[in-house]
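can u do me a favor
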């Protein structure tokens, strides 16, 4: 039975209201260390919905917190009452005026969408935080976001022209440069002129507290700019008019190397003399982490710390001249001027990847926000960094440092003792606050104070200033309805910590988590940065296909992790509907395993959860059919004509699919007339002592596409190798793993290890053809059989076909010049095995290669299961299907994954080839 306020709210808004336990869990945290379960989540469709939600909240004594993408690192986007998610519906660019260089946007507009729209007119929004591919303009206005290029184009507050808001009383106001828009504000300003002039606006990145300096007459008396950075405590944004800037005609990148980061900071004055548009710092340990993750980084100048400086000009020549001037005036050990845009982008990529990978210390411990955003006047940055390093040593803390050095803003995530020693957590934060204040700095430079730092404002501001903040909020929100516990009357910094009290979760015999210790720690890898909400296809990303299809937080990697975090803390049951709903549309594609900066692996968590939920209990019917498919395909390969006839009979097929837990709109794949294993004759062993090559004959290749195995045998034997296959039918257990039947998976994997161990022990390699099965052998096998030392050896001997071929001395790809190839990498290959070797081989053929990014949508059993068809097609529409429609008619589709080939055939009518077949094809 819903509560009265919920029924009242549903009756007056057109958007959605959700008070279920799953939804509340999804919105219980943002990208901060904090957890607060809301009473409900509202998805307003328009300003009328926002007003109605606020009215009901006021009448029922509920608080209201605004939320965009939920990427707030300080805990600004969570609250105990109603959370209003503006990103779902209120995400329109209402107007863009190239002549006036302005845009009017709703709060849920993602910055990247505005940049694309403005870019068509040679314009852009100046501030560009690292989360720009998912953060919203409403969130940026709430936090006064900046990013690397704020050094040239200012903070978000500098871009704001006009804001339309609802204040805490439900009154709509249009904020501009007129203080009289709010009763009492002119008087408030006059009464606090001296305080504002002495304590506020002392340097550009003084983001902590309210930006009251914008109320000063000499600063333009802008209520709109003062509202920026209020973190949802003064009003709910309905739309904003912001300024745009021209895209530079030409830019070059200068990389400067220094002995260390403090030395780099000491050189800021020389850097700023050439008026750069970005100045970013990163230390050697951060670069080392990126190098280890990527396998390499572009060349950097000699040094232990670097500055990346972007310089613009009206022409390339002018930009290069400014770069050479900087190179001559800087006090760096070494330098590089990069004029090639692709190389410059690769260097910027080190900084971008490092920001995500900084969620772990160099020795692999979790690192957390909390003191990730301090700022000092740039001329004091070098000395501050030296003392900050000493403070970290004193507290036994570590982290990877980077930041916006041109603005004096430092980002670092630290291995703070949140879970086991909250008192040490508080002690460090208070010492860090005192230290930054001694340098004339700010607790926050762009992330806001939120729940992470509001309690520390007393170290930075006088009692009079804190009272002024409270008075300013009271003018907008006298009843304290909006985002309580933030900035004014703050919650303690050590209250509501998500990790506090977290206990290890006993194993039940499923997966082991060697990097984390247990599942509870593993699911808390998710710190909420929200990259899973971004469309990263253009950059080669695959995460998160279900969210891109539905645009629902429920279907994001982060949303699922939040629900599982509630499970491991005992707030939700493994067998609850909330957990089932959360995991239902997870494709188990494993993309988050590689694409999530924190290394969240929902596919494994889902398998473990299904194991715990159904162990020794009846399961859904598709777990017995699809989840044990290799068991049924054995007999099917002996009766292919009968099986295919039954699968082709329309009414019978549809009935059979329904009874088997599958979608009747799906076709049944055709079983091969003769399986590979039935036609194979194991070669007679000769006097050659070499172990040969063990070709892993997976169930799908054997039963459906034996010609692929035949092509692989021919290709490998052409290189002088003797090819073997396992003597008996063995299985990687993939379908058991994806349905959480881990006891059955282990049984099959033990048999697999028995079949392969002698070959591997003799120095042989195992070559896989189906990426999902190959990935299971390399990744899942050692985590399901940790007690068997042979499992790790077998996993280490597994190769993809492309990896094997690249390791062959003297082998060169055949010439396929004049061909166009459209290639669909399998998700598991992207996430676990890597596609780099395939990419190099395909390019080495001379063919024109069009690489699809993203999941095909079938994803093993997912797209076949009843209830998943529509989402499966929607996922395919985000990558595979548009690419096939755009491809030349005579192009060749290469898809090594059986799922990918099946999806392309069923949805687009396109046949496909395996890499082995393509390399053997006669032109």
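np, heres the sequence
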């Amino acid at each position: 039975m819903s509560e009265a306020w919920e029924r009242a709210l549903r009756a007056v808004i057109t958007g959605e209201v959700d008070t279920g336990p799953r939804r509340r869990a999804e919105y219980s945290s943002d990208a901060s260390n904090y957890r607060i379960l809301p009473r409900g989540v509202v998805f307003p469709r328009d300003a009328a919905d926002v007003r109605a939600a606020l009215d009901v909240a006021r009448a029922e004594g509920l608080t209201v917190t605004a939320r965009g993408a939920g990427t707030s690192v300080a805990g600004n986007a969570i609250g105990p009452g109603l959370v209003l998610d503006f990103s779902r519906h209120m995400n329109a660019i209402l107007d863009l005026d190239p002549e006036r260089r302005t845009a009017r946007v709703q709060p849920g507009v993602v910055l990247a969408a505005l940049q694309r729209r403005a870019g068509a007119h040679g314009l852009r929004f100046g501030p560009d935080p690292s989360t720009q591919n998912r953060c919203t303009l409403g969130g940026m206005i709430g936090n006064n976001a900046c990013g690397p290029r704020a050094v040239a184009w200012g903070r978000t507050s500098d871009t704001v022209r006009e804001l339309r808001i609802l204040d805490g009383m439900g009154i709509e106001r249009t904020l501009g440069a007129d203080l009289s828009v709010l009763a009492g504000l002119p008087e408030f300003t006059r009464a606090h002129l001296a305080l504002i002039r002495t304590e506020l606006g002392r340097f550009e990145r003084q983001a902590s507290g309210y930006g009251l300096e914008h109320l000063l007459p000499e600063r333009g008396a802008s209520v709109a700019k003062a509202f920026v950075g209020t973190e949802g405590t003064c009003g709910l944004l309905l739309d904003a008019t912001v300024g745009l800037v021209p895209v530079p005609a030409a830019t070059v990148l200068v990389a400067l190397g220094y002995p260390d980061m403090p030395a780099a900071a000491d050189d800021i004055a020389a850097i700023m003399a050439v008026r750069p548009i970005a100045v970013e710092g990163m230390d050697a340990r951060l670069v080392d982490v990126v190098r280890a993750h990527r396998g390499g980084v572009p060349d950097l100048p000699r040094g232990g710390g670097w500055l990346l400086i972007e310089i613009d000009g009206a022409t390339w020549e002018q930009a290069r001249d400014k770069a050479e001037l900087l190179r001559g005036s800087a006090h760096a050990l070494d330098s590089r001027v990069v004029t090639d845009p692709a190389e410059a982008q690769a260097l910027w990529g080190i900084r971008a990847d490092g920001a995500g990978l900084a969620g772990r210390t160099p020795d692999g411990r979790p690192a957390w926000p909390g003191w990730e955003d301090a700022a000092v006047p740039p001329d004091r940055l070098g000395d501050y960094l030296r003392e900050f390093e000493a403070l970290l040593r004193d507290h036994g803390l570590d982290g990877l440092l980077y930041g916006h050095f041109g603005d004096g803003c430092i980002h670092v995530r630290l291995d703070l003792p949140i879970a086991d020693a909250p008192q040490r957590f508080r002690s460090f934060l208070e010492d860090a606050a005192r230290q930054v204040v001694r340098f004339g700095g700010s607790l926050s430079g762009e992330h806001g104070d939120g729940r992470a730092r509001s309690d520390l404002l007393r170290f930075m501001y006088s009692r009079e200033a804190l009272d002024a903040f409270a008075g300013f909020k009271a003018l907008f929100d006298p009843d304290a309805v909006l985002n309580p516990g933030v900035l004014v009357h703050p919650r303690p910094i050590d209250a509501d910590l998500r990790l506090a009290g977290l206990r290890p979760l006993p194993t039940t015999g499923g997966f082991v988590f060697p990097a984390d210790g247990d599942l509870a720690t593993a699911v808390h890898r998710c710190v909420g940065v929200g990259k899973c909400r971004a469309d990263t296809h253009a950059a080669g990303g695959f995460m998160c296909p279900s969210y891109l299809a539905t645009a629902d937080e429920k279907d994001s990697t982060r949303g699922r992790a939040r629900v599982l975090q509630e499970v491991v803390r005992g707030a939700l049951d493994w067998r609850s509907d909330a957990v089932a709903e959360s995991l239902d549309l997870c494709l188990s594609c494993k993309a988050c395993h590689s694409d999530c900066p924190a290394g969240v692996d929902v596919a494994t968590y889902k398998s473990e959860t299904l194991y715990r939920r159904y162990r020794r209990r009846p399961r859904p019917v598709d777990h017995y059919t699809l989840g044990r498919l290799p068991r049924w395909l054995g007999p099917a390969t002996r009766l292919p004509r009968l099986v295919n006839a039954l699968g082709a009979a329309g009414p019978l097929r549809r009935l059979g699919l329904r009874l088997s837990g599958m979608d009747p709109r799906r076709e049944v794949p055709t079983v091969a007339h003769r399986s590979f294993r039935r036609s194979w004759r194991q070669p007679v062993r000769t006097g050659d002592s070499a172990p040969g090559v063990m070709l892993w004959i997976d169930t799908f290749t054997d039963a459906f596409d034996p010609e692929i195995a035949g092509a692989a045998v021919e290709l490998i034997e052409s290189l002088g190798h003797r090819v073997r296959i396992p003597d008996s039918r063995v299985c990687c257990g993939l379908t058991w793993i994806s349905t959480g039947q881990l006891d059955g998976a282990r049984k099959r994997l033990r048999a697999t290890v028995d079949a392969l161990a002698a070959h591997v022990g003799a120095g042989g390699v195992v070559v896989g053809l189906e990426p999902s099965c190959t990935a299971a052998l390399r990744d899942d096998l050692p985590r399901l059989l940790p007690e068997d030392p042979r499992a790790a050896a077998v996993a280490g001997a597994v190769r993809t076909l492309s990896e094997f071929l690249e390791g062959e001395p003297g082998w060169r790809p055949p010439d396929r010049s004049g061909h166009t190839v459209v290639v669909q990498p399998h998700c598991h290959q992207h996430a676990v095995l890597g596609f780099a070797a395939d990419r190099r081989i395909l390019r080495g053929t001379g063919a024109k290669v069009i690489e699809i990014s993203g999941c095909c949508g079938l994803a093993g059993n997912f797209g076949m299961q009843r209830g998943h068809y529509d989402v499966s097609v929607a996922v395919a529409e985000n990558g595979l299907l548009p690419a096939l429609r755009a491809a030349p008619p005579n192009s060749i589709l290469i898809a090594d994954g059986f799922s990918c080939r099946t999806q392309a055939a069923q949805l687009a009518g396109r046949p496909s080839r395996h890499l082995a077949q393509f390399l053997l094809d006669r032109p």
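The mean pLDDT is 95. hope that helps!!
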